[in-house]
Here is the input.
Amino acid sequence: MTMSERAMPKLLRMKLISAILPKGVSHEMIRKLREEKNILNANMNYARGTGKLTPLKYREKVVEREKEILTVVVDEERGDEIFEYIYIEADINKPHGGLIYMHSLMQATEYILPDLSEE
Amino acid sequence: MTDASLITCVVQRGKADDVVSAARGAGVQGATIYYGRGTGVRERLGILGLTVEAEKEVITIVVANDQLDHIFEKIYLAAEIDTPGMGVMYVTALEKLATYVPEEILQKLERQA
Here is the structure.
């Protein structure tokens, strides 16, 4: 494709879902998203999490743990569905399960996989 | 949960702990820190750019909207964002937020309601 044939594609309104997960959870979650929800684009990076211990009597004690940040960009219509799916499947609804949040993206490009059919 | 926002603060490497301490003092429960690399300073300032560390720490903190302004200000001052080159911070509104809430805290909230 020459420079003159390239043009900005139509930008889409999408949702960004970010989940802060304990170490070791993201890889399995990415596999499940691909196989069960047909999500082909998910990112994972590592982070350092600081937080307070759960029992109220230990609330003043701070702990640091290694975390994995899973980010997924999805179509606007699928935002709630994928949000709930990750919340349940990654055990975020259990103690020390992490945190998940979602917000809108005003503009986002679609991630298209290259066509490898000739190989 | 609703009515929450995400504060993101990008500072020079080594400053994150001071920022997180200030945020905890303001009532924040937890923070996430990861690493990045900043570009642009060296190109703009030349040799003077060496005074600004290119390696960055990115801190993200989820806060309730009624505490947002207070915590934002505490982080702003601790990170010295008003000093050129020290960093940048911004707020993103969250549409949805979910986590595990311990039973004892849920019961406390129900009693208050």
